């Protein structure tokens, strides 16, 4: 499937399923080129924090990981991850680790914690698991 077709499919999905985007994206908007993306409204971190639940595009029963950030640079923000989101996170990070030369005979020291809801720490851990790499976790 061509990139523009995939983007249009995603746009249709979020207009149908996201309370946040339902009212912010023109229902007749169809992308003909990547440059058409500038027609979309900008979404800020404040939008995600204030209207958080309105971004959820699946039934809450499909959410497998409810995470709230620490709010280091402002208000805390919640993220809701489905099994598919977690699998994608693991695969993406696995590819990054492989590109970096990490392989199954290695052990990876994770000094970024998942216990404090650090999203990158979760990604690193899941990627290591996907790659079948030994993980040493410290705080």
Describe the structure.
The protein has 2 domains: 1-57, no CATH class; 59-139, Rossmann fold (3-Layer(aba) Sandwich), CATH 3.40.50.980. 40% of the residues lie in helices and 14% in strands. The protein has 139 residues and is α+β, with helices and mostly antiparallel strands. It has 5 helices and 4 strands. The strands form 2 sheets. The protein has a two-stranded antiparallel sheet. A two-stranded parallel sheet has the order 3-4.
Please write the CATH class name of the largest domain. Alpha Beta
How many structurally independent domains?
Answer: 2
The neighbouring-strand order within the major sheet is: 1-2
Largest sheet, strands/sense/barrel: 2 strands, antiparallel
* Share of residues in strands: 5-15%
Percent range of helical residues:
25-40%
Instruction: Tell me the distance between the termini.
Output: 43 Å
Which blocks of ≥5 consecutive residues have pLDDT under 50?
none
CATH topology-level name of the largest domain: Rossmann fold
Order of helices and strands: HHHEEHEHE
Structural class: alpha+beta
How many alpha or pi helices? 5
List keywords for this structure.
14% strand, Rossmann fold, 139 residues, two-stranded parallel sheet
SSE topology:
Blueprint: H1 3-17, H2 19-22, H3 45-50, E1 63-68, E2 78-82, H4 83-99, E3 107-110, H5 119-131, E4 134-137
């Amino acid at each position: 499937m061509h990139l523009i077709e995939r983007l249009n499919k995603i746009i249709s999905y979020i207009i149908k399923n996201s309370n946040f985007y339902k009212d912010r994206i023109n229902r007749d908007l169809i992308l003909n080129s990547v440059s058409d993306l500038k027609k979309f409204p900008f979404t800020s971190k404040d939008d995600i924090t204030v209207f958080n639940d309105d971004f959820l595009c699946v039934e809450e029963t499909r959410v497998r990981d409810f995470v709230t950030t620490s709010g280091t640079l402002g208000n805390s923000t919640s993220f809701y991850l489905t099994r598919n989101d977690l699998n994608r996170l693991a695969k993406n990070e696995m590819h990054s680790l492989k590109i970096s030369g990490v392989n199954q005979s290695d052990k990876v020291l994770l000094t970024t914690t998942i216990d404090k809801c650090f999203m990158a720490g979760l990604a690193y851990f899941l990627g290591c698991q996907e790659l079948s790499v030994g993980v040493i976790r410290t705080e």
